[in-house]
Specification:
Number of domains: 2
Helix content: 55-70%
Radius of gyration: 31 Å
Strand content: under 5%
Order of helices and strands: HHHHHHHHHHHEEEHHH
Oligomer: single chain
Distance between the termini: 83 Å
Number of helices: 14
Length: about 325
Amino acid sequence: MKYNVLRMTGSAQAESYPPELTANREGRAPDGSNAASGPRRYGWLPYAIIAALLVAIYYHIAIKLVYDWYTIPDYSHGFLVPLFAGYLIWDKKAALSAIPVRPAWRGFSLIVAGIVLLILGVYGVELFTTRMSFILLMAGLIWTFFGGKMLRELRFPLLVLILAIPIPAIIFNHITFPLQLKASQIASDILPMLGVPVLQEGNVIQLPVMKLEVAEACSGIRSLMSLFALAVFYGYFLERKTSRRTILALASIPIAVAANVVRIVGTGLCVQYWNPDKAVGFFHEFSGWVMFVISLCCLYLVHRAMQLLWPTTGEKA
């Protein structure tokens, strides 16, 4: 018995299948385009929609925050904070790109918490909670879409954003009033040593010529907020260990308080031995800037002392 062997050429094989089936097997659409590129081409669409929703929700909140940065001297450093946070993300771009994307539904809990916080802030007319809800919501979105490891890598840039948010008035008053009393008390103890008799009544220092009132602006809270933020920036750029960065940030607190006391003492000396008019106006404002620069120098000296007493060993943060 003989068998006829039919050899099918490449062209015969191609003709034996419909063009649609052949195109699908090769990963192409019937019109010749790459069908697999469709999902990838529109993969950015969910992120764009979420970004648009965030802009629509937080637009007015962000405008008011920028206005507060411009009008409240205590938080004029807020303009630098988003730039610093953006630099932190850019500086970590190599590490971020190496992290595998592993979406996690557990991050949805932070999204819900952020939305609840936003609603409470809107209906409770509390700006602090509405602004904090943005940070919480961003943390939840990062965790949900990119995974917990990505969130851990971005936690410091997210936490830095808190420095740009003015604290609630009730907390602000609980901080400033004790600072006013403490600064008045210390200045009242130093001025008699320099030959200036004083009588302290709360935050008011009675001099022989006039009264000095240590107001909220003179409590040191303004320099404290700005100096603390700059100490965080300074520590990040010049130190590699988290512990040393923390020490620098905490050192800004006593430095700011001490600088404010020196400013009050200097004002008292000017009133007693020079001209009472120098206690107000341009000289008073200028002395604040001078003391802030001196505070920065003191922060640098603290850093130098740390380097001399505890030299770095090359360990990373």
